[in-house]
Amino acid sequence: MKELTYRQQEVLGYIQVHMKDHGTWPSFREIEQHFGFKSTNAVMGHIKALERKGYISRVPGQARTFRINLALDEEERPEEAEDVIEIPIYGHIAAGYPDGVEPAGEIGRLQIDVESAGIRRSRRCFALKVRGESMIDVGILDGDTVIIEQAPPRHNDIVAALIDGETTLKRFISLPGKAPYLKAENKNYPALFPVSELVVQGIAKSVVRNL
User: Fold this and answer.
1) Annotated catalytic, 134?
2) CATH number of 75-208
3) Would you call 170 a catalytic residue per the annotation?
C-alpha cells in the first residue's frame, strides 16, 4: 500500500474510531463537520485517495459504502516475516504550549521494531519530532521522536491532540462526569482545557532518541 499524507491518516483514524464506537461508517457530513472541511467534496477527495491507495474499498452494489482493508492478522503472516516496519515522520509536535502550525507533510522515514515499539501492525502509525519540555517528567525530551498509533484514547494515555485548532503532546485525562482535558508532565506548564474542541490524533506508544 502507498503511504498516506498526514490528513489522510487523520481521516482514516477518525473512520476507524467512529466504527469502533458506533458500529457504523461515519457519513460524509460527519467527516466534514469533524475536520471543518468547507464541503463534502473535500471529504470525497480524501475518500478517493484512501481508496486509490488501497486502505479502503467499495462494497459492490452499495453506493457510497466502503470497507476498511486491514493488514494481515498475525496467523496469516509468513513465518519468516520480520517485525520491523517503516513509518513516515510527519514534522514536529509541540510538547510545550500548543502550536498552531500543522505538520507540512512527510519529512523522513523511520524503521521500528513492532514489539519494542508496543504497536499493532493492524493500526496506522506515524512519527513526530518533539519540540518543547512539557513532558520531561515522563522521559519525553525536546528533540525526541515519538511513535504515534491511531487508536481511541483511554484515561492517562499520552496523546497527540488537536485542542481548539492547535496541536500538542500531552497526557489525556478523562474522569467520570467531567470533560476530558490535557495534562502536562512538567510542573512549569498548566493543564489545557478545551474551549470548543479536543480531538485526539493518536496515542504515543514509544520514544526514539538520538544519542
Assistant:
1) yes
2) 2.10.109.10
3) yes
